[in-house]
Design brief:
Elements lengths: L1 E3 L6 H14 L4 E4 L2 E3 L3 E5 L5 E5 H9 L11 E5 L5 E5 L2 E6 L4 H22 L2 E4 L18 H7 L3 E6 L5 H10 L3 H4 L2 E9 L3 H15 L3 E6 L30 E6 L4 E2 L3 H6 L4 E6 L2 H6 L2 E4 L1 E2 L2 H10 L2 H10 L4 E4 L1 H5 L3 E4 L6 E4 L6 E12 L2 E4 L2 E4 L2 E10 L7 E2 L5 E2 L1 E3 L2 E4 L8 H14 L13 H19 L2 H10 L14
Parallel strand pairs: 1-10, 2-9, 3-6, 10-11, 11-12, 13-15, 13-16, 16-18, 18-28, 19-21
Antiparallel strand pairs: 4-5, 6-7, 7-8, 14-17, 19-20, 21-24, 22-23, 25-26, 27-28
Length: 505
């Protein structure tokens, strides 16, 4: 198990890196996360063509392990819709919502499903690399835990704790994480990995030695900060953040893309495909002024379409988007963002607020249905093949017959809409189709007057994602004592690890 001192400590990337390292050694390895809390999900299609959802991190870890993603890799996915409730996706299927009132009741069902899925994987694979959630030292959640030390105890598996040194206080965090665990949990903590280190290793060494003396546990490695690891980084969607390191433009001009960082943003990884192109600068923002300055505005997916639409209006962002479109600049809405651009939204399912006016930029109406659409469709758009995936309750129930479709499915039905420079689609992942992405960006640049912008001819998004998991494997091999890690995988945590009472030393 790869646990962490905090969220975003690096559990996901370390888990993926270990999977890649083991896969390179010829080990039959699978990733696993008992419960993920994220609105960034991927659609997995089983052998019977049925769709289900898992966290995107586990989908990337599956790629690192040389596997097609499976629902069992993330049996419980919680998708926050507010500060108080989350949608529960159990074994890929949305089964209801969880809040403080029904937490204990549902937790028993979720833990049973998670343990069963893990036990199946353990029988089928040589190694299962499990990612924890949050921190194992969240002592308020330890009772009946099945995600961190509860899972480790269930399997008697060794635990490596990852700490993010970039945040500061990493030694206190690592020590305190172990010290807050009860004795039987501490016995499973084999050692540590420090993540996102910048600077001289010599200056860090005294701290590593003292941590070892205080805890009786080694630090297996120190991973450097790597600015190229930005794909599928679901916990790093910060305001004002520029995605990736945009390469210099091929032509004479940049294309500036502003992605609205919605409160309940989901699958913002769609923007990463746009950011992979040279000369495309993609920024996540909540500032109306940055939308006004952009060439292309993107409204991404959201788990709470109506609530986030109200937030856009309160903060002046909805007016800025409408004004952007009126000035003839392109606007793109994806999934929930597409729904916000409609004339009207009927929602008794997600928000329960009934009929709500959309921004009116696309002549369609959307109605939320109880059953969620989960598919991985293929089609064509702008004269190029395109594939994607759909995750949404909202359905287009009316459209102006004169509105052309953005994406045409093989059966001839139309999905999405485009009017002038305003585009909308329910398809996530469409911009991972290289030729379609290039044609769309060329079209958007022309609409915005960026005639000096040119797309590259050879950007391959799938290859970039593969390079990411290869780099993760490289980091593990180069900066972690893999022989010691292999012994822990084979033999479990070393016997006789000391107990650290709270308040020690």
């Amino acid at each position: 198990m790869v646990a962490g001192t905090t969220s975003d400590a690096g559990k996901s990337v370390v888990t993926a890196g270990i999977c890649r390292w083991l896969w390179r050694r010829g080990v039959k390895v699978a990733p696993f996360k008992a419960q993920n809390m994220s609105n960034n999900s991927a659609v997995v299609v089983d052998g019977q063509g049925r769709g289900g959802e898992i966290g995107r991190a586990q989908a990337l870890q599956a790629v690192a392990a040389g596997l097609e993603p499976q629902i069992r890799f993330n049996p419980v996915l919680l998708k926050p819709g507010s500060d108080q409730t989350s949608q529960v996706v159990l074994l890929g299927e949305a089964v209801g919502s969880i809040d403080a009132a029904n937490f204990r009741q549902l937790k028993e069902t979720m833990s049973a499903a998670a343990f069963d899925a893990f036990d199946e994987l353990r029988r089928e694979f040589d190694v299962v690399v499990c990612e924890g959630a949050g921190s194992p030292a969240e002592i308020n959640l330890r009772e009946n835990d099945y995600v961190n030390m509860g899972l480790a105890r269930h399997a008697q598996m060794p635990v490596v704790v990852v700490g993010d040194i970039d945040r500061g206080g990493v030694f206190a965090s690592l020590f305190g994480t172990v010290a807050l665990l009860e004795p039987a949990d501490q016995e499973l903590v084999a050692g540590f990995v420090i993540n996102k280190f910048r600077g001289s290793r010599e200056l860090l060494e005294p701290g590593l030695q003292m941590l070892g003396r205080l805890t009786g546990r080694p630090t297996y490695g120190v991973l450097p900060f790597d600015v190229d690891l930005w794909l599928d980084a679901e916990d790093a969607l910060a305001y004002g953040r520029v995605l990736g390191r945009p390469a210099a433009p091929i032509g004479e001009e940049w294309l500036r893309v502003a992605v609205v960082r919605l409160p309940h943003i989901s699958n913002a990884t769609d923007a990463e495909a746009l950011a992979s192109e040279p000369g495309v600068a993609v920024r996540l923002t909540v500032e109306p002024g940055e939308l006004a300055e952009a060439d292309l505005v993107v409204l991404p997916g959201t788990k709470s379409t109506v609530d986030d639409l109200e937030w856009l209006r309160r903060n002046g962002l909805a007016d800025a988007i409408v004004e952007h479109a009126k000035r003839g600049k392109p606007v793109l809405g994806i999934c929930g963002g597409f729904q916000m651009l409609s004339r009207r939204i009927h929602d008794e399912i997600e928000s329960g607020k009934g009929e709500v006016d959309g921004m009116g930029l696309l002549p369609v109406e959307v109605s939320f249905q109880r059953n969620k659409t989960l598919t991985r469709p293929q089609g064509s758009a702008l004269g190029a093949p395109v594939h994607g995936y759909e995750i949404h309750h909202g359905q287009v129930v009316w459209r102006d017959s004169d509105v052309p479709g953005l994406i045409r499915l093989p059966d001839g039905t139309q999905e999405g809409a485009v009017v002038g420079g305003v585009f909308g689609t329910h398809w996530h992942g469409a911009f991972e189709s290289d030729e379609f992405r290039r044609r769309f960006l060329t079209l958007a640049a022309g609409i915005s007057g960026r005639h000096g912008f040119k797309v590259a001819a050879a950007t391959n998004f799938a290859a970039l994602r593969t390079a990411t998991v290869d780099r993760l494997g490289d980091l593990i091999e180069e900066h972690v004592d893999t022989e010691a890690l292999w012994r822990v995988i084979e033999q479990g945590p070393p016997p006789g690890l000391p107990f650290i009472p709270p308040g020690a030393p």
